[in-house]
Amino acid sequence: MNVLASRPRRLESYVCGSWTTGAREGVPLLDASTGAPVAFIDSSGIDFASTLAYGREKAGPALRRMSFHERAAMLKALGLALMDRKEEFYALSAATGATRADSWVDIDGGIGTLLSYASKGRRELPNTRVLLDGDAEALSKDGTFSAQHILSPLQGVAVHINAFNFPCWGMLEKLAPTLLAGMPAIVKPASQTAYLTELMVRRMIETGLLPEGAVQLIAGSVGDLLDHVEGQDVVTFTGSASTGRKLKSHPAVIGNSVRFTMEADSLNASVLGIDAGPGTEEFDLFVKEVAREMTSKAGQKCTAIRRVIAPRAHCDALVAALGDRLGKTVLGNPTDENVRMGPLASLDQRDEVRARIRDLLGDAEIVAGDPDMPRIVSGNAEAGAFLNPVLLYCDRPFEAKAVHDVEAFGPVSTVMPYDRAEEAVDLARRGKGSLVASVFTNDPAFAEEVVLGMAPFHGRVMIGNRVSARTSTGHGSPLPGLVHGGPGRAGGGEELGGMRGVKHYMQRTAIQGSPTLLSAVTGRWVAGAQTQTDGEHPFRKSLAELRIGDQLVTATRRVTLEDIEHFANFTGDTFYAHMDEEAARANPFFEGRVAHGYLIVSFAAGLFVDPAPGPVLANYGVDNLRFLTPVNPGDTLQVQLTCKEINPRVDAEHGEVRWDCKVTNQNDVAVAQYDVLTMVAKTRS
Ligand code: NDP
């Protein structure tokens, strides 16, 4: 369907396997610059209980049958397919008021997040359906009762209720971890910009890459959907604090203990260091960053800088520099390539921001930008939602309330002075919990005091200075690998953060039992579980033949003083504990000269390696290496090598095998313990 050709059009929801329009014609959604209708939205008539049930029953099992790597491959293919279509999204995005640069954050940023999760999922998760959380815990002295925490996908549906400002990124940053975890989702975009989300979901469904029902879309109100959420469902919300609180306290959410993640208003602060006066690189970077955060996406970013905290002595220079820079912002229709800032998403939104500026005027004065007379170079002055960037100054921020409480969700920031570092921290904290803060300083002591003071009140803190100026991702960019969310007023939720975000859609369960049964359940061999030895060296086995618990008990090797001296001279590691009997004896841990830890590891490899070419392709490292007991000359080493975990890759002819390696001495006491990591072919060549 050529969606762009048929504007304005009635948006459709994708529920229970088909695209459907609402029963009524719907509410018109207007182009932010021209006021022309782009689409009509209505979801009346949708059976929301069935939509939830469809996701749970149809898509949930299909997603859970896939391994993490299969889901990661699906996300990658999906991301690449969307990338191919991205110009179509850019064309429609302009109607939301977004410039090309704004749309880049939303569209390329959103697809990039999907691709980043695909790649991190492949690299950081095993190719399994269950995730192990931490190591096994021994619960009995004789080793017959142990425990392992596991994470398995929740069996409900994730309902994502999104804000209007990022119709693509807002959806994809939540979908990526949800789908990777193995959970289906229902996307509910904010109405104002839902036409762009609808187009992207349409293209996603058309790829055929997703199991049916894995992503459903509701264009319009969610009706009674929340009445039907259950204990295995998740609800995530981004938007205003008032709506968030209402949904979080919905009887079905409370009654069924539904996981609820909220990201709401945030009075993000940026602090200029005392050292960063006019003439320093940090001052210039700060001015650039504040102006950028105020104008990109017309300030409609949950992470935008709302409070500018600056040394009192530098405030005049700062206000002048910011006023100058903001005054040069070219405002107009974003389809005009000279335009640097588009309109707000809607006239309602502009009226709302103007009202919030009036609230701020109780505490602050406007020092740059007229909120009523937009200076536009293109677009419709009456029907377009244009607003100049507005800078305010609050001279007594410790006596003020509104500047720390009122979020004007547009190109609006307030400068406030401080005298000492602790005052800057105090002001930042008055936001009562924010998504992000930044500090611009080149003074390590100032950075330490301010960052540690602000950290408990923020989900992310960025330090800007001359060194990172060219590589910094900036104050306002949430990144897939970093936590996005904030305490208190910011909603108390946490999204992204790499694999942390995936775990929000999984249940953590402590499994207790005998080691052999634990291994059977988790797919990872644990100490004390059954082992098997069939005479064949496990390094001769391909992935197809290898089994968890396959074990090799090696021959023994006596360590001599000559070995230790040879190793010391050969490697240059002549540390006294290996070379000087008297000094070694004086050491509280040793009773004389000891073997190097790396000599033990090297001898262990010499004992367990099968040298001939075979399915083992490479050793790519060791994990958790610990030297447990000193090895003295005359001690005898032996190795127990046990196949611990097998991870075939989905897109290669090999996979990873983790081996438990335990090195013991003649008294059967463990002297070293670690995991050996190898690449092994799927079949024998
Ligand atoms: P809302 O809270 O009104 O809407 C957010 C989402 O919730 C939208 O998808 C909306 O759908 C949906 N929603 C609203 N009411 C209900 C309900 N009763 N049941 C289920 N879903 C509901 O916020 P807006 O997007 O309109 O933005 C308003 C303000 O929120 C902004 O001015 C800004 O202050 C703040 N905001 C904060 C953000 C942040 O991340 N910090 C991001 C965006 C906004 P629908 O659009 O169909 O009503």
From TrEMBL:
Tell me the Gene3D superfamilies matching this sequence. Answer: Aldehyde Dehydrogenase, Chain A, domain 1, Aldehyde Dehydrogenase, Chain A, domain 2, Hotdog Thioesterase
Q: Can the keyword Oxidoreductase be found in this entry's annotation?
A: yes
Question: What's the superkingdom here?
Answer: Bacteria
What are the protein's UniProt keywords?
Answer: Oxidoreductase
- SUPFAM superfamilies attached here? ALDH-like, Thioesterase/thiol ester dehydrase-isomerase
Gly residues bias (residue ranges): 483-492
**One Gene Ontology MF term:** oxidoreductase activity, acting on the aldehyde or oxo group of donors, NAD or NADP as acceptor
What InterPro entries does the entry give? Ald_DH/histidinol_DH, Ald_DH_C, Ald_DH_N, Aldehyde_DH_dom, HotDog_dom_sf, MaoC-like_dom, PaaN-DH
Annotated Aldehyde dehydrogenase domain ranges read: 27-505
Which parts of the sequence belong to the MaoC-like domain?
A: 548-657
Which CDD domains does the UniProt record give?
ALDH_MaoC-N (cd07128), MaoC_C (cd03452)
Q: Name one Pfam family in it.
A: Aldedh
Q: Which residue stretches belong to region Disordered?
A: 471-492
PANTHER family for the chain: ALDEHYDE DEHYDROGENASE B-RELATED
List the NCBIfam families.
Answer: PaaN-DH (TIGR02278), PRK11903.1 (NF008868)
Recorded protein name is: Phenylacetic acid degradation bifunctional protein PaaZ
Source organism of this protein record: Rhizobium oryzihabitans
Q: Which gene encodes it?
A: paaZ
